[in-house]
Amino acid sequence: MVKGVDFSKGAKSVEVSIASLYGGEIEIRIDKTDGPIIATVNVNTSRKGGIWRSFTAPVNKNIKGVHDVYFAFRGEKDLFNFDWWMFK
After folding, report:
1. In CATH, what number is assigned to the domain containing residue 35?
2. H or E element: which one contains 71?
3. 40-55 burial, b if ≥16 CB within 10 A, otherwise e?
């Protein structure tokens, strides 16, 4: 959870830096762990595992104001290493 993210300028997409192992997905939610999903980043394993690269997904809601942001990691096992995130 990241507390108090300011969406005063809105967000059209989210970019994350990932080193994929077996892949999976990241659900990005606001305000609580089971809050609305604003983006889903699919992390595929089409590249060699352990190589850092950026993945981008659209933000599917018009968000304004300050919100807590929650990252939920989904998949089978050893999904990926997560370095950083950025809303654009």
Report:
1. 2.60.120.260
2. strand 66-74
3. bbebeeeeeeeeeeeb
For residue 61, count other CB atoms closer than 10 A to its CB: 14
pLDDT at 47 over 90: no
Question: 3 vs 61, 68, 71, 86, CA distance in Å?
Answer: 19, 4, 12, 14
Pseudo-torsion of CA 62, 68, 69, 75, nearest 10°? -130
Q: What's the whole-model pTM score? A: 0.90
Residue 26's domain spans which residues?
2-87
Give the total number of structural domains in the chain. 1
